């Protein structure tokens, strides 16, 4: 038996270390091999520039992928929502584990809920998707909020609220869960209010495409439904030709009748960051049984969204 340590390439951020550590334990369990974390610094970690300005899609991912291709590490864990939609040929998406809570959340001062924020409240987020949907909701419900562009890691963002610079920030529940700060949440946003980013809450475990043994071993951590759902969500994103910094939300979920899964629903939204113009559509159909069917579902919904003018709403970037 092979008991040589597997090398897991990871970013150094608290979130990356937390999710890599959790996956390392699971991989150790299924392979019976020790897993050693190898820290890799990415351009996104050192850059002070705004994410959108340095190219948006995948800045955090590239350095890890380079290390895989060079053979410096055996596998890597990414937040699936940060993965570019194009899968490089030399790499395999070996596992998509069971997704955690996909929702966005608010961390606000004084334990405030989103809808209880006072007039003129300032809400920080670096995401045009979150801005668009929060502003659209505010317009529709007579809330007076100002979305403020911020960046930085999860700790930095929460500090804006504790320091009194902002009334609230928007974050992903999954990230807070993974770093053990879910108690900071003052409001879980319904996905009817803010549709999450495609793939939000899910992880991607990648290794090189030629490593059949490792692909098979990591495959034990795969959750087939999560994979189908995120495949449809990311296919929608790709068909809209939108990068990770575009204002696109997507979520696939199962519609069940008691214990019996009946259908899958895919919802998508695109909007201008000021929330004045939105295209939001959903489609429901049989649960896809193949990768190709999942891709087709995303493409079909994207085509309907484009027919309703979605392309005209995506030119924007956060400032
Ligand atoms: N944009 C950064 C990012 N990438 C992944 C997560 C954690 C959530 C996830 O894995 O989906 C976060 C933080 C956030 O959006 O609050």
TrEMBL record:
Gene3D superfamilies the record matches: Periplasmic binding protein-like II, Porphobilinogen deaminase, C-terminal domain
InterPro entries, sorted: HemC, Porphobilin_deaminase_cofac_BS, Porphobilin_deaminase_N, Porphobilinogen_deaminase_C, Porphobilinogen_deaminase_C_sf
Coiled-coil ranges from the UniProt annotation: none
Comment on bound cofactor: Binds 1 dipyrromethane group covalently.
Miscellaneous notes: The porphobilinogen subunits are added to the dipyrromethane group.
Role played: Tetrapolymerization of the monopyrrole PBG into the hydroxymethylbilane pre-uroporphyrinogen in several discrete steps.
Name the UniProt record assigns to this protein: Porphobilinogen deaminase
Species, as recorded: Streptomyces cinnabarinus
